[in-house]
Amino acid sequence: MAERSGPSRIVALILVGLGAFLLVAAIMIPTYTVPRLEKTPLDLEVTTVSTGTGSVLDAASLAAGSAVVDENVPFVSQRFVTVEEPSGADDITLQAGSTLRRTDVQGETGLRSATVDRVTLDRVTSMPVENPIGTIQVQADEPAEEVPHTGLQYKFPFGAEQKSYPYFDINARVSQDIDFVEETEINGTPVYKYEQTVAPVDLSSVVNIPTNRVTLPAATWGVEGGETPVTMTRWYENTRTLWVEPKTGVIVKGDEQLHQYYSRTAGDPEVDVLRVPLTFDENTVEYQLQQARDGMDQISLFGRTVPIVLGILGLIALIVGIVLGVRGNRGDHRPARGNAPRRSDDGGGAAAPTEPRNRDWTTDQTEVIPRTNLSKE
User: Fold this and answer.
1) Averaged over 245-258, what is the pLDDT?
2) Environment class of residue 134 by beta-carbon count within 10 Å: exposed (0-12), middle (13-18) or buried (19+)?
3) What's the chain's Rg over C-alpha atoms?
4) Distance between CA atoms of 366 and 24, rounded to whole angstroms?
5) Least confident range of 91-95, 104-108, 149-153, 288-292
6) Contact, 221 vs 270, CB < 8 A?
7) d(CA 254, CA 278)
8) pLDDT-derived band of residue 47, with 50, 70 and 90 as boundaries?
9) What is the domain partition of the chain in residue ranges?
10) Closest-CA residue to 152 (of 182, 196, 183)
11) pLDDT tens figures, 88-112
């Protein structure tokens, strides 16, 4: 019987070992894998499109002697984000080329602005790193300027929280808090809504270009003073709203209320340069939602589903292995069945003859043969 318990014992040991391995794997997989999934991918390549209708200053009208602002102008803003060097295990460098153009005119005459922004971010927190310093280029014929970036821009951190974050405005070139407003849904996906208000910024103090501070006759500006020279400063304001999928930090939807104007006083527009609400179009929202869902699925798969399945299988294997092992040990000590051979009393090792079970020893008489003296006297 001991020989028959051998295979059972081997199977039991295999199951116990397998169960222990699966339980350890259930613990280690989320610990090891999820942190590696919660990083901005190095193959990131995203195009976002925002549209809106607003008003814009006809720049040629200033040269003609009278500021003219066109109304009900359709606009489209495009941003193309790619990964550049240096990028590696911990940091990622993003380059974003952005354009804003009016779509009611053709060619370059419709282009209102073009910017190339470059920043290196921590792949987990999405916050800029100190080295290398970010750059911004606003004129094609001028090199990019080094500009320290100090807040979030293109993505929120994994596990975004219901709190304020510093958010970098590329036009103002400073960071201000973007505040959590509420938890809501977009197409069935839970998202966090954040809002940021950018107070009037003097653009002439941000970028030294001729169009940010202009001196023209008062009549050209449309204010009192006739031919008296009046210097106007270009100001920038914005109200930014972002909807963020919190697990992945993907910005699912964005909305900006852009306002640039010429004025002698902050907050008191005299001539609008640009006033337009820009919102992600439907295709961009759906694409961003899919990116967020894919990220959530991967995190959920390795952070929850796989560990649960491995844990259950490991527990089952461990229990079955222990049960088989216990039963095998009991079988080794079980007495053999059947009649053991009887040994003779003389200790010689010979087995005593076995009598028939039905023999009646009460009536059996042994014949005694009297000893006969065969010797002669």
Assistant:
1) 97
2) buried
3) 43
4) 77
5) 104-108
6) yes
7) 8
8) very high
9) 2-30+306-330, 38-280
10) 196
11) 999 999 999 999 999 998 878 899 9
Taking the model in full, what pTM does it have?
A: 0.78
Instruction: Kindly state the tokens that stand for 304.
Output: 């929850």
- Using an 8 Å Cβ cutoff, are 163 and 183 in contact? no
Q: Looking at the predicted structure, is the pLDDT value of residue 341 above 70? A: no
Q: Does pLDDT of 16 surpass 90?
A: no
Residue 152's alpha-carbon distances to 168, 245, 355, in angstroms, are: 6, 15, 100
Cα 221 to Cα 335: distance, rounded to the nearest angstrom? 113
Report how far residue 255's alpha carbon sits from residue 58's, in angstroms, rounded to the nearest whole number.
25
Confidence of residue 352 (pLDDT cuts 50, 70, 90): very low
Looking at mean pLDDT, say which of 101-110, 273-282, 332-341, 343-352 comes out highest: 273-282
Burial code (b: 16+ CB inside 10 Å, e: under 16) for 193-219 equals bbebebebbebbebbeeeebbbebeeb
Residue with tokens 């991918």: 41
Q: How far is the CA of 248 from the CAs of 82, 152, 192, 296, in angstroms? A: 18, 14, 12, 7
Provide CB contacts within 8 A for 32, sequence distance 6+.
none
- Tell me the average pLDDT of the chain: 85
Asked if residue 86 lies in contact with residue 57, where contact means CB atoms within 8 angstroms, the answer is no
Number of Cβ within 10 Å of residue 87's Cβ equals 17
